[in-house]
Each structure stands twice: as structure tokens, then as C-alpha cells.
Amino acid sequence: MHEYSLACEIMDNVISIAEENAAKGVNSITVGVGRLTHVNPDQIMFCLETLREDNVSKGAQIIINEIYPEMQCECGFCEDGKKLCFVDDEIIDDIRTFLDVQCPQCGQTMHASGGHELVIESIDIEQ
Known about the structure:
The chain is α+β, with helices and mostly antiparallel strands. The protein has 2 domains: 2-68 and 115-126, hypothetical protein PF0899 fold, CATH 3.30.2320.50; 70-113, no CATH class. Helices cover 24% and strands 34% of the residues. It is built from 2 helices and 9 strands; from the N terminus they run αβαββββββββ. The chain has helices spanning 2-20, 41-51, and strands at residues 25-34, 61-67, 70-72, 78-80, 86-87, 90-91, 101-102, 109-113, 118-126. The protein has a 4-stranded antiparallel beta sheet with strand order 4-3-8-7, with no helix packed on it. Strands 2-1-9 form a 3-stranded mixed beta sheet, with helices on one face. The chain is elongated, with a radius of gyration of 18 Å. The chain starts with a helix and ends with a strand. Zn(2+) binds at residues 73, 75, 103, 106.
């Protein structure tokens, strides 16, 4: 489970930033997880919730934002990759959703741009 080592690195950064800013506590941590990162958002959430309990971020709210790729075609057509993940209001949770996507303009295969991010988007600290 590589999510644990990633969560440890995220938490180390959060603690370091909190200490640099003389924070009394951390109110919330927002993490962006790209849909193409091979990181399970539920698992990283669980790991972060566990790791926050023994440091300055105890009790902090953990927010996970999923980052979808933009689908691009050589003809110039672009579409938000999030649209590909919903069929009849049900989410398709499969990385293969972004493979072999045909452009509605020209029929060529589109490619995914972005969605590989794993980033601390924000840390709300209490001073």
C-alpha cells in the first residue's frame, strides 16, 4: 500500500509548514489527487486521518479533491475528463476510461493532459 508512504510524506510537509509558521494547530488539509496517479483517494484519506492524531494536525479536517485530466485532440478539440466518468449519473471509477477516447469532432484518439498530480492544495493553520 504505497498510499501510506505518500501520506507520511504529505504529513511531514504539513507538520513542517505548521512549525515554520508557529501554528498552534491545523484546522484543515486539502490534498489534490489526480485520477491518473494510481492513488486510491479513500486509502490516502484513511492514512492521513490516522497520521494526524499524534501531532499538531490532530483533529484537522482532511479534504480530498480529485483532479481530472483534460482530454485533448490533435485537431484542437478539448473536453473536461470529468465528463467521461459519469454515465447515467453513475461514476465509472476506472483509469481505462481515459484510454482510447474518440474525438467527437474528427474521430481521432484523444490523449489525457494532467490528472497525474498529488499535491497539497492548502493547509489552514491556527496561530
